[in-house]
């Protein structure tokens, strides 16, 4: 099936999931995960209606940026981010979803300061507290959020999660509800910054309707739009 057909199907699913949850479809932002996609495919997706592209790898993002492949859409960074690559993203991404440590948070603030901008970010939460995965453990999230209020060049917009792998999409519902509850709790403790915390980035191709039911504002969908991914080359 074509990208436009796949995209229309995803958009309809988002619309249906939103209405079933008592929400409006306009509350949901579709982030098209463009990992391993070519310039031409990204341009096709934008022409078909994609308004936000989500990249997992700095090398690919820079390559697409240089060729103008993202023209007409926002760019979000949604993958694991190393501190030594933060500088390459400044001025190129509207939102970094995957801030997974205080060290990374401080580096983003530092590099954004050098670039003379304020970078919008989300804190990545390791809901299952899996040592093998990145993200803040639950007790670490509030201190990280409070640290954001002390930094001049980052703006905390909300939270993001990648739940553990499951057999059935519905099995992720408890994790999505947990992130929603955590966001509400932290937002209530954030003082002036609480008005900025409006984003819950959760849900991917296999479970985005469940995430929407639990309160997601941003869903990161790749395979359902583009089909199976091509092999990944060496990292930058």
Overview of the molecule:
By secondary structure, this protein is α/β, with parallel strands linked by helices. It has one domain: TIM Barrel, CATH 3.20.20.10. Helix content is about 40%, strand content about 15%. The chain is built from 8 helices and 8 strands; from the N terminus they run αβαβαββαβαβαβαβα. The chain has helices at about 5-20, 40-50, 60-65, 100-115, 140-150, 175-185, 210-215, 225, and strands spanning about 30-35, 50-55, 75, 95-100, 120-125, 155-160, 200, 220. An 8-stranded parallel beta sheet has the order 7-6-5-4-3-2-1-8. Strand 5 (about 120-125), helix 5 and strand 6 (about 155-160) form a beta-alpha-beta unit. Helix 1 packs parallel to helix 7 (about 210-215) and helix 6 packs parallel to helix 7. The radius of gyration is 17 Å and the shape is globular. The two termini are about 30 Å apart. The model has no long low-confidence stretch (mean pLDDT about 95).
Describe the secondary structure blueprint for this structure.
Layout: H1 3-20, E1 29-33, H2 39-48, E2 52-55, H3 58-67, E3 74-77, E4 95-99, H4 102-115, E5 119-125, H5 138-148, E6 154-161, H6 173-187, E7 199-201, H7 208-214, E8 218-221, H8 223-226
């Amino acid at each position: 099936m074509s990208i436009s057909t796949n995209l229309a199907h995803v958009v309809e699913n988002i619309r249906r999931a939103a209405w079933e949850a008592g929400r409006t479809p306009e509350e949901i932002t579709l982030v098209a995960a463009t990992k391993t996609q070519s310039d031409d495919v990204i341009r096709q997706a934008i022409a078909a209606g994609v308004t936000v592209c989500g990249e997992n790898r700095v090398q690919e993002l820079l390559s697409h940026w240089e060729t103008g492949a993202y023209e007409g859409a926002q760019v979000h960074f949604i993958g694991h981010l190393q501190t030594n690559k933060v500088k390459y993203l400044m001025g190129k991404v509207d939102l970094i979803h995957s801030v997974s440590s205080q060290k990374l948070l401080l580096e983003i603030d530092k590099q954004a300061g050098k670039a003379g901008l304020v970078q919008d970010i989300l804190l990545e939460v390791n809901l299952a507290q899996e040592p093998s995965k990145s993200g803040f453990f639950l007790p670490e999230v509030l201190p990280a959020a409070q640290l954001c209020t002390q930094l001049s060049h980052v703006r905390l917009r909300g939270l993001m999660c990648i739940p553990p792998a499951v057999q059935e999409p519905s099995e992720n519902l408890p994790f999505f509800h947990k992130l929603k509850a955590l966001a509400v709790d932290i937002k209530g403790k954030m003082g002036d910054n609480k008005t900025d915390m409006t984003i819950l980035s959760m849900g991917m191709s296999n479970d985005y309707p469940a995430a929407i039911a639990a309160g997601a504002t941003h869903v990161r969908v790749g395979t359902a739009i583009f089909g199976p991914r091509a092999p990944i080359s060496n990292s930058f």
